[in-house]
Amino acid sequence: MIKQSLYQGVDILGKILSDRRNSVAMKHIHGDLVDLACGDNNLVKNYGKGIGIDIVDYGNADLVCRDFSKLPLNEKSYGTVTIIASLNYFSKPKEVLSEVNRILRNDGILIITMSNKKIMKLWRKFRGKDINIPAFSNEKIMDLLNAAGFVI
Questions:
Q1: Which of 17, 46, 106, 131 is 20 to 30 Å from 121 at the Cα level?
Q2: pLDDT (tens digit, 9 = 90+) per residue, 71-84?
Q3: What is the pLDDT of residue 147?
C-alpha cells in the first residue's frame, strides 16, 4: 500500500489546529478509543489505547477503511469515538453516525469537533481551495445524531 502525505509541504496552521483539537478532546476520552478520519493518528498515539481509522493511510493509520459506515469492529465495544473536524467531509454522515452508535458502548461518548468559518477562511488562504466544504451547524449535527439513534 502506498502511503500518502497528509499535506504537501509544511502546514504549520494545520498542525496547530490539530494539536489544539486533540488536546481538548483528550480531556474527555475514556476506555478504548476509535478515532475516525484519524489523519496522522496522533490522538490515538498520545492517548495510548485505541485504533485510528482513515480512508487513506497518511502514514500512521491503524486501519484503512473506505466506508466508515461499515467498520470491521465489534458491537458495543468502545468507550469513546472521536470525529475531529471531519464529519462534514463524510459522504454518508448519518450512516457513519449509526455505525458509531453500533460500536460505542452504552456508557460510551462520541466527541465531534467542527471547524469554524473564520478559521477555515484563514486556512484556505494558506492551503488553497482544497478545503472548501462548509462545517455543519449545531442544528444539523443534532439532527444527524437523532437520526442515527443517539440519545442527547
A1: 46
A2: 999 999 999 999 99
A3: 97
Which pTM was predicted? 0.87
Enumerate the β-bridge partners of residue 64. Answer: 54
DSSP track, 57-121? --S--SEE-S-TTS--S-TT-EEEEEEES-GGG-SSHHHHHHHHHHHEEEEEEEEEE---HHHHH
pLDDT single digits (tens) 53-68:
999 988 799 999 999 9
CA R_g for the chain: 15
For residues 68 and 76, is the Cβ–Cβ distance under 8 A? no
Q: What is the distance between the alpha carbons of residues 135 and 115, in angstroms, rounded to a whole number?
A: 6
Of 88, 79, 137, 133, the residue nearest 109 (C-alpha): 79
Distances (CA, A) of 118 to 85, 114, 127, 134, 137: 14, 12, 14, 11, 14
Crossing angle between the packed helical segments 93-103 and 138-147, to the nearest 10 degrees: 60
CA distance 16 to 33: 22
